[in-house]
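Troubleshooting log. The previous structure file for this entry was overwritten by mistake, so regenerating from the original sequence record. Sequence copied from the archived sheet and checked twice against the printout by T.R.
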Amino acid sequence: MPPSAQRPRLGPPARWAQAALATGACCVQLDAFALNPALPVVRDELHGSAAATPWIVSGYLLAAGSLMPVAGRLGDLHGRRRMLTLGTALFGVAAALCALAPSLPLLVAARVLQGAGGALLMPAGLALLTHACPPGHGRRATGRALGLAGLATVCGPFLGGVLARSVSWRAVFWLTVPLALAAALCARRAAESRDPQARRRFDTAGAAAATGALVCLVRWLEHPAAWGWAMGVAALGTLFVRAERRSPAPLVDLALFRNRPYVALTAGGAVANSTTVALLYVVPWVLQREQGWSVRDAGVAFLAPAVVLAVGGPAAGRVRPAAAVPVMAGCLALAAAALGWAAYGTGAAALLMASTAAAGALGVAGGLALTGTQAVVRRERAGEASGVTKAALTATAGIWLAVTGAGAGAGAGGTGSVTGAGTGSGARPALALPAAACLAGAAVLVLTLLVPRVRKRLRRRAGRGGWGRGPRGAGRAAGPGAPTGRVRATRTEAPTGQAAATGTESSQVGRGGGDS
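Regenerated output below.
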């Protein structure tokens, strides 16, 4: 078969969808991270409190994360191109409102609105590109788009700090307005797609319960002693599950969570994304605070980890779906080792080398969370699946910022727990915890791979040995005086046939999970 038949080139609609996703994701990632170095300047100019300032960043991330399941399903119902265009337009308008905000409360409100635009943009863009590409070829196109967006992720803090000090913090928002406009124009040239089997009914109860549960979860993690928020999580989570079971057109098909590869890749991606956020904020801060480097020098030195992190997206697109979970487990283990080196090593050179290794591993793991999950679900419900995955990734990043106070600590050089300032321990407490999380995530992924294999082997052994699965009394049918041939027939025929039936049933369950 010629190479062109194996790898068909993307048509114009797919290229426009890829450009729209890449540009829109750049907007989302740039505004998620570029403003953090400018937070002290924003707080001084708008006369805001230190407690409210971190919500400029975390409020944006948490709003986007809590609304993404809703946005993903809206794309499946009403068209992914339509939702992508609407999301980019809302994002651009909200960015202009942020640039014009006269006070801190209005800025936070505009950031929440901007997060809603990002929630519409990302799941719709991922699903639109998946449908625009030939079957089996969407992973590479998505990986290339995510690689371009990764440049905005890693260059955002450096760019935001330079603009805040040389021009104004408002320039960070004005920069995203033309990018959002370009993403909307690219989306208009892509081909529309939606779920043809979906009922035109929106699950309002499920959407409200899911959004409320995520908000309560974040508030509880901020204040662990406030058990009222924990009770809200439990109550709304129960209400969500009940609503999804009863709804004829659920917001999220609960069968999606029986898809083991999907759940494993989403959980591993959440760990990788929150660890990436820690890396982006901690390493430049340590270079400035402990090594005495300027903002410009720290930003230039961090270009090596930035480039390696951006390459992770295209690299993830080349991983086969069957190998996605093992590769992610290896990446998380490698990231844990590199972060441990960065946390306990000494010197700027060791910190940068360890950060580069960790960034490469985390880039591939984060890319697999998006490209891999799209490959193991039905194409018709790609928006729903991408919405749940992006919600997990974005919410964990927002929770990390809210819980640790990264927005205030890193930007202001204060005593936020993200930096470990005031304790004299530098990067040790800030990177040791993400390293432990990566190691635990790798161990869980390995278990998800081993447990099904062990169960399958035990079932086969049970069938061959004639115990556990055979008819009652099959192992005792032959007494001491029974013919030997009769004993063998009894011990092999019935259990083997039943084992074969069990294997067929297991394979059907696996296929059903993969088609969720």
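Residues 1-5, 407-426, 467-516 have pLDDT under 50 and may be disordered. Archived copy saved in two places this time.
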